[in-house]
Amino acid sequence: MxxxxxxxxxxxxxxxxxxxxxxxxxxxxxxDTGKPYAFNELxxxxxxxxxxxxxxVNATEYFYNGTWADDxxxxxxxxxxxxxxxxxxxxxxxxxxxxxxxxxGYDVFASGNDWGGVELVEKxxxxxxxxxxxxxxxxxxxxxxxSAVAIWERIGSAExxxxxxxxxxxxxGGKESMKYFIHGSDAVVAADKEGNVCSMIHTIxxxxxxxxxxxxxxxxxxxxxxxxSYVKQTSPGGRLPAALQPAIAFKPEESAQGRRPVMALSxxxxxxPIVVPQYVTSLLDSGMNPKEAMESPTFLSPGFTxxxxxxxxxxxxxxxxVLQEVRDMGQGVTEVExxxxxxxxxxxxxxxxDDNGMMYGCTHPLRRGFAEGV
Length: 374
Known about the structure:
Elements lengths: L2 H10 L9 H7 E2 L4 E2 L9 H20 L1 H12 L6 H6 L8 E5 L2 E5 L5 H14 L15 H11 L2 H15 L12 E7 L5 E7 L10 E2 L2 E2 L3 H4 L1 H6 L13 E6 L6 E10 L3 H14 L4 H6 L15 E4 L5 H9 L4 E4 L1 H4 L5 E7 L5 E5 L11
Parallel strand pairs: 11-12
Antiparallel strand pairs: 1-2, 3-4, 4-9, 5-6, 7-8, 9-10, 10-13, 13-14
Helix pairs in contact: 3-4
């Protein structure tokens, strides 16, 4: 077991989370010692392995209509929850059309949900109005469901997925050690030589192991506990608003496709709404490579209780004389200690593609991620 995982288990080894049920206690207690699993001890999760095997064979049928759905809803009913078997049976994935805008000569796409992508587009418009040229509000050039279907045609079978799985396995098997870092959210960007590009974010929107309830080795998150206001605003059968802002950018050109990808960007961390536009302008306007952009200082989200809206920034990341010049102009700036900045800081991962098709990728230094070409 890694040092980070052992530390997390020790932190949540209590009656609220891992010891809330007998299932959690069984998973995370070493039967040889009677104590929570510790660093370097052999840690196995056979129930989780079996769940993954079942999903790999039966996919959504097992998850939404099979024994996992039955076991999960039964447990929730026992705990006075509200999800029923019928809810699981009726669930359908929802395709969201991406939003996009022309920003300083680039065609930028963001997630097409009712919050995050729209917010980013509006911010890019404001950035142009503040002095960046070529403002264009034409939103007619959108990606469509057809593009997703075309990609699915390439990977939608076990045979077609062999090559893709090999690539993913290599990407996930990078040499960079991850043993000291555990995060609840992760960002991934990818591109290939044929011009396909992807920017995605996975998050449980929850503390580790969430509710402390386990079904066949799977921990149920407790997103509703930290998004109560969103739950209250959402009607039955609706979906909670998603505010994340993964983005990709294309450069219009005279070619068969009419454009070529130049950037993919994803950011996690509570300051992402503030940080994403900063990365966009660093990568597209300033011509920074991903490493330069990820290592550049970024402003963080102001505190809700700060009446004067002083801009937080990580301590020692900007020269004092520069900070003083900003303060002299009337904009408050607050330097935040590293230990306090780590949580809210926007942790990004980005790739860019130059005019010669050369790809460059990098993650934020605090993410300890890795970039690899295949």
